[in-house]
């Protein structure tokens, strides 16, 4: 009798999240049926540079894990961002302080996508969801938003010219940074 009640209750425990159906699986893996490419990278303070491409180490001891899944056809990027050891408030001229920028390793470049800032405390912060273009960053270059006209296929075609980071008031150039690399195709 108890086993029948448990079996009948199991469908009630379906995982519900901000991700589209078929998007993010529980655990560390993306659902390979939804994304054209996935990226899973560790961001560290030693990779941060200034806008003149000079080293500007981020917050000592901080670390970030940035996971992205991209569906090119729908112009959707799903994200699961985690930060550890990040202190203080966020700060950026963009809409948020957590981004994907376009620039080679060791260089600075404009933000192309602005993500909701991870929330939590200085031990652990998290942000998770999906964004669908058109993308807006809130940063203007020559009168145009740096996200205007940006398409996700640019990341899939050449991920190594993109990096991800987060910024705080104390570490304005970046608290942590990580360069994207070849994504896992799906």
UniProtKB/TrEMBL annotation:
<keyword id="KW-0732">Signal</keyword>
<dbReference type="Pfam" id="PF07452">
    <property type="entry name" value="CHRD"/>
</dbReference>
<feature type="signal peptide">
    <location>
        <begin position="1"/>
        <end position="18"/>
    </location>
</feature>
<dbReference type="InterPro" id="IPR010895">
    <property type="entry name" value="CHRD"/>
</dbReference>
<protein>
    <recommendedName>
        <fullName>CHRD domain-containing protein</fullName>
    </recommendedName>
</protein>
<feature type="domain" description="CHRD">
    <location>
        <begin position="37"/>
        <end position="182"/>
    </location>
</feature>
């Amino acid at each position: 009798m108890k086993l029948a009640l448990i079996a009948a209750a199991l469908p009630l425990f379906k995982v519900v999240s901000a991700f589209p159906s078929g998007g993010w699986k529980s655990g560390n893996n993306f659902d390979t049926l939804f994304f054209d490419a996935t990226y899973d990278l560790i961001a560290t303070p030693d990779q941060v540079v200034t806008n003149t491409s000079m080293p500007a180490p981020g917050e000592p001891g901080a670390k970030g894990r940035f996971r992205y899944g991209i569906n090119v056809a729908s112009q959707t990027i799903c994200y699961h961002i985690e930060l550890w050891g990040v202190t203080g408030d966020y700060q950026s001229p963009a809409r948020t302080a957590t981004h994907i920028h376009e620039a080679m390793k060791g260089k600075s470049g404009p933000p192309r996508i602005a993500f909701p800032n991870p929330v939590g405390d200085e031990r652990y912060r998290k942000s998770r969801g999906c964004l669908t273009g058109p993308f807006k960053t809130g940063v203007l270059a020559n009168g145009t938003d740096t996200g205007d006209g940006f398409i996700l296929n640019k990341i899939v075609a050449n991920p190594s010219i993109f990096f991800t980071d987060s910024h705080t008031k104390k570490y304005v150039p970046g608290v942590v940074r990580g360069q994207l690399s070849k994504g896992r195709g799906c």
